[in-house]
Amino acid sequence: MVKALWQEIEAQISAASGTRFSIKSKQPMGGGSINEAFHLQGLSDEWFVKLNSRNQLDMFAAEAEGLQALASANAIQVPTPLVWGIHENRSFLVMEYLPISGAPDPERFGHALAAMHLNTRKRFGWHRDNTIGSTPQINAENDDWISFWRQNRLEYQLQLAQRHGASSQLFDKGMALAANIASLFSGYTPVASILHGDLWSGNWGAVDRGTPVIFDPAVYYGDHETDLAMMTLFGSPGTAFFSSYHEVFPIDSGFEVRKTLYNLYHILNHFNLFGGGYAHQAEAMIDRLMEQVGRRAAR
User: Is the pLDDT score of 298 beyond 80?
Assistant: First the structure.
């Protein structure tokens, strides 16, 4: 069955690329807990392949569409998806192999990501749902950003957390915050930028001497601050990146408060994926945000 899977992938690559492809080497790749990943090399070309169970084809299709959407912004490099499909009980996604190594040049990265975020439209969300990690990410379109974030991000993750055994205190505090987030946007009107959606430090890198590249997206249209917030959650691209970004797409002063709100989504998702101490971290973030809500109400 394994041999037949790789024969099917060879055939699919050959058909989609227009060049006969035969696997000469197959190297497992690390760095992810959701999929198996491999670097395939042929005589003259090479590809990156992700594998999962048959029922995850939709996840791969959404990832491929997301990469295509980011590429259409013509601002920052992403791997080009080639083909995705099913063979027996396995799904697969084949994309361009990029020799990613090291960190991107921070100034180029800041300018490129800001240019990507300048690609905007009217409505928040996307035409389809996708995944954040392996959690469904709901992208139902909305004309109002605050409503979108409340319903599709914060409340959705809180409801999942409740099902996964989070305390009633965490759930109740979180829902109280969700009802009051509008005050955190006083004087700030987000626009619907195209977003990577899961831009932690493991999902960016460099090719060709510092050329920035981003990958493994969870694409939708939303406030550009959400990507910037995630970039500070598990490591940071540094001050030179943010200064360069600000030159192209100014960062509002309220970002320092809202980044906690935006990262709460990811911490709740980590609780839903991994459990453990993320519940305490989420509750502490909710408490800090409710303090900010209270200060604004007292003005």
Answer: no
pTM (2 decimals)?
Answer: 0.96
User: In the chain, what are the domains?
Assistant: 2-96 (3.30.200.20), 106-298 (3.90.1200.10)
Active site residue 198: yes
Q: How far apart are CA 114 and CA 116, in angstroms?
A: 5
* CA gap 161, 71 in Å, rounded: 34
What is the Rg, in whole angstroms, of the alpha carbon atoms belonging to the chain? 20
What lies within 8 Å, CB to CB, of 250 at 6+ separation is: none
Question: Buried b / exposed e across 224-237, counting CB within 10 Å, b at 16+?
Answer: bbbbbbbbbbeeeb
Of 193, 127, 173, 181, nearest to 153 (Cα)?
Answer: 181
Q: Please pick, among 45, 105, 129, 198, the residue that the annotation labels catalytic.
A: 198
Residue type at 135?
T
| Sheet order of strands, 36-41 included | 25-29, 36-41, 46-53, 90-96, 81-87
Q: Residue 33: pLDDT band by 50, 70, 90 thresholds?
A: confident
* Burial class of residue 257 in the structure, from the number of CB atoms within 10 Å of its CB (0-12 exposed, 13-18 middle, 19+ buried): middle
